[in-house]
User: What shape does this take?
Amino acid sequence: MKQKQVFFLHFFYWLLIIFNGLLARAVYSEGGLDILDVTIFLANILGFYVNYFFIVPRFFDPKRFYLMIIGFFVGVFVFVLFRYSMEELLLPAVAGFRNYAEGTTFLYYFYDNIYYSSLTVFVSTNLWFFKYYLKVEEEKSVLIEERKHAQLQALKTQINPHFIFNSLNNIYSLVYQNSDKALPTIEN
Assistant: This one.
């Protein structure tokens, strides 16, 4: 069930991204989708999942918060690097045009894309934290169940010696009183 929740969050996010792209294309442009839109979307997917699967797990340490902040900035840098590579290096080679004017420096490109990339990296990081939280909660519930089971087993082992002690004490009492019931009680 928990995997389905994570899947639907990812699915919903990408649905929003696609809807936003189509809406922006309908409002600001008269044409349909072009290769630049597809390239931006692919860079978005690549940056999102590189951050989700590789960067966040490597930089996550609850005891060292500064490491997570560094990881966030690494995620932003990697995202912008992917987008720059696809839009300014690959796209001109394949389609003959680029997203920014020729001669745009990487520093300007990076600055111009910090906001866009930060949102994607932030969502990617939060979805990873949600998945991590679900995993931790599941492990915690398993540990609680194992602890309950261990406590139950401990109680069961405590019952047996107590029962034997009481039985021996009763038999001792019957033998001490020279009761006729002592011998049949020992046999049972």
Summary: The radius of gyration is 33 Å. The mean pLDDT is 86. Residues 22 and 119 are 18 Å apart (CA to CA). The chain has two domains: 2-141, 147-187.
